[in-house]
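Before going further, it is useful to explain how the protein records used in this thesis are read. An example of such a record is reproduced below.

***
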Amino acid sequence: MRIAFAWVCAAFLASPGVIAAPLGWDVLNFPPSSGMTSFQAAGEGTSILFVNSFPNAMRSSDGGATWKALPGSTSSYNGFGQPAVFPAAGQPNSVYRLTHVYDSGTFTDHQFLWFSSDAGETWNQVSEIKAPAPYYGFGTLAPIGSQPGLVIAELTADRGGFTGYTIWPVALARSTDGGRTWAVIDGTSAPGIYYVGLSSSTYNRRGLYLADNGKGILRSLDSGATWQSVTIAGNVDGLWVDALNASLVYARWSGKLWASDDAGLNWREVPTPDYTDNSSDYNAFTLAVDPDQEGRVYALSRSAGLFASSDAARSWQRVTVTGNYRVRTIAQVARRNGKRSMLSISDEGILSRDLDAAPRGMALGTDLWWNPAESGWGLSITQHESLQMFAVWFTYDELGKPTWRFIPGGQWVDATTFVGQLCMSRKPPQSVLGSFGFPPTVTVVGTATLKFTDGNNGSAEFAFTGGPSVRLPIQRMTFGAPAPQAPWPADLYFNKSQPGWGLGVHQQYRNYFVTWFLYDEAGAPTWLFVPDARIPTASTPPIIGDVYRASSAAGAAYAARSVTVTKVGSIVVGANSREAVAQGIRSSFNYTIEGMNGGEDLDAMEF
């Protein structure tokens, strides 16, 4: 493990802990094509994958290592994100697909329906299928059973557009003979008026939901035999049905996630899975239902931040610390080789993450923790994807002066308990802002144990060698109002050439809480804080805010009593984007403290 901070405890350098490799995603190979717009897993307990790509739809039987074009297939219209194949519900080896052939002589497009009973190893062409007038063709299919059987399909139409030729799904059709003949389902929208989209559930075909921008949601709870209209207050751009309970449905509209426990009659707003990974209010998170457990659902951000819920999206548990890929709004939980995997698409390829791997610790992210019953002190935790953590404890000495101790890493001794050395740092006496360039003296003063009951609550115990043991309840501090994420990533920052001080940047939505740990005139550790730092414009750095100093009443050390705060200056942090920081591009830091001005370069700390 690399520790770029020069002032870590020597014992930690000698024994960095059990976590060394980042816990990220596996990237499966790209198929040999000029683009990939969707994927689908099929086959029970196998490594079979399908992708819709250009110019051909492709199949892999070895988890993406090699790819083979599907017979008689070119990548048909079917829209962005359109699957290449459509598994029958509850029968993963029974797979349908659509192909098309364009006749340049008659300027007509012919669609053909295919069926496979062995997860795509072999195929039989069912028939050419023709959409009922006045529709153009077929989009997404929802097969209810094996061939021949019941199939629900989107009907498409030419809605015009900038080029004069734009194909969109606009209605639904139903076939009871495996796709040979079709009937339009009453109650859907007329061609050329609304966009509609069939729910993306691979596992539950009894509950079918149709997203209809402009009219609401059309639903069926009897495999498409009858349909009812459900009114909602927005334009739906995503629908997901629970794998085991057809009345449990999730939707996305107006930039928010929603859930219904009664088949769409009533809706509750889903809490935002994470306040530091919500890069836009449109398609910020996509959902994927679990195939095995009712009410278990996953949320995936556009940067591959993954969150899990076991209570039908009422609460979320972080699975990854940070997102490190740019993904599209497509996600699926699939059974692969006897395990559940989360699959998605990024610019690098198909992403796969094992959901059944034993946890090596808790994914907490970077944030502030405190005890609201004893305000005035706090614990800054910075965590990277490896689950390694760097924590700074902001507290007070016996005179009530602000001081800090730090935990420069450690190890997860079990899934919920993190243990590391507790360290203290000092510098030679000099002016407060003149001490940056002097190396510190670091001393191990004890052991810190952080134990978490869940992702928002826990306890911190600081056991001093030959001294007291301080045990404190902690909970995640809330300081940001819901809003799309601003561009600056929360992390720990310092100057590589000036060890011993640093900034903790904590972010919730568009709000920032900055902690600044440094030294006083005597060289003792002290700290300042910026509780309401913000980016003044909608999307452009820098971060600005007023700086405060806290003090406590005198008494026993490591307690907050009658804390008072005094404004002492301001800061301006020239924030770079997440991508720039990941590439090592430095940020700027300028300050005015009690009439003194200064500035430093900042580097994201590596550990």
